[in-house]
Design goal:
The complex is a heterodimer of chains A (118) and B (107). Chain A contains no helices and 10 strands. Chain A has strands at 3-7, 10-12, 18-25, 34-39, 45-51, 60-62, 70-75, 80-85, 94-100, 112-116. Chain A has a 6-stranded mixed β-sheet with strand order 2-10-9-4-5-6, with no helix packed on it. Chain A has a 4-stranded antiparallel β-sheet with strand order 1-3-8-7, with no helix packed on it. Chain A is globular and about 40 Å long. Chain A starts with a strand and ends with a strand. With 107 residues, chain B is an all-beta fold. Chain B has strands at residues 4-7, 10-13, 19-25, 33-38, 45-49, 53-54, 62-67, 70-75, 85-90, 97-98, 102-106. In chain B, the strands form 2 sheets. In chain B, strands 2, 4, 5, 6, 9, 10 and 11 form a 7-stranded mixed β-sheet that branches. A 4-stranded antiparallel β-sheet of chain B has the order 1-3-8-7, with no helix packed on it. The relative contact order of chain B is 0.34. The model of chain B has no long low-confidence stretch (mean pLDDT 97). Classes of the chains: A mainly beta (118), B mainly beta (107). The A-B interface holds A 35, 44-47, 61-64, 97, 102-106, 108-111 and B 1, 32, 34, 36, 38, 43-46, 49-50, 55-56, 87, 89, 91, 94-101.
């Protein structure tokens, strides 16, 4: 069974950094691109970005509003994907989901809440 | 960026009735369109990909159609567990984009 478990969320002040982790199990992690999607409270879904598998270059793509502030990385030896978030803004407050794939995504974690507030 | 527009925002339907949800793309996305269902407090769940292919575990009452810029999700006979939020998402272009969602509520 595919499982994705996010961690690392919490309360952070504007301008600070936070790193989220997504621990995967139940599939060959290194074979898949991994994505992050977020959802602000009471709002819709927003794609943050994704990282390709190493076989496809291991590079990332990001939504314009997050490019330069957010970085996705992966450690295939540990089956973990990371989302490094810098210069956080109050508008970044959301539940952040880890998902498998870069197009349609068939597996989602339960999400981790990031609250950016002073 | 491709803008995805869903209609209606809210759909009130009685159990057992048919529900038709629409999704329009601001430019062609070919058949690279997915539908997700989300219930309160839960992560989204993939229902349909490739505009019309049911994901594993998707009940047969859910069907998707369309290509290019116009897409439809049909629920043939609404069950109590189908009352939820539904999102369409294009994956033809970067950035991937979602519609704003259609809430299916009990009439």
């Amino acid at each position: 069974e595919v499982q994705l478990v996010e961690s690392g969320g919490g309360l952070v002040q504007p301008g600070r950094s936070l790193r989220l982790s997504c621990t995967a199990s139940g599939f060959t992690f290194g074979d898949f691109a991994m994505s992050w999607v977020r959802q602000a409270p009471g709002k819709g879904l927003e794609w943050v970005g994704y990282i390709r598998s190493k076989a496809n270059g291991g590079t990332g793509e990001y939504a314009a509003s997050m490019k330069g502030r957010f970085t996705i990385s992966r450690d295939d030896s540990k089956n973990i994907a990371y989302l490094q978030m810098n210069s956080l803004k109050t508008d970044d407050t959301a539940v952040y989901y880890c998902t498998r794939g870069s197009g349609w995504t068939d597996s989602w974690g339960q999400g981790t809440l990031v609250t950016v507030s002073s | 960026e491709i803008v995805m527009t869903q209609s209606p925002a809210t759909l009130s339907v009685s159990p057992g009735e048919r529900a038709t949800l629409s999704c329009r793309a601001s430019q062609s996305v070919s058949s690279n369109l997915a539908w997700y269902q989300q219930k309160p407090g839960q992560a989204p769940r993939l229902l349909i990909y490739g505009a019309s292919t049911g994901a594993t575990g998707t009940p047969a009452r859910f069907s998707g159609s369309g290509s290019g810029t116009e897409f439809t999700l049909t629920i043939s006979s609404l069950q109590s567990e189908d009352f939820a939020l539904y999102y369409c998402q294009q994956y033809n272009n970067w950035p991937r984009t979602f519609g704003q969602g259609t809430k299916v509520e009990i009439k």
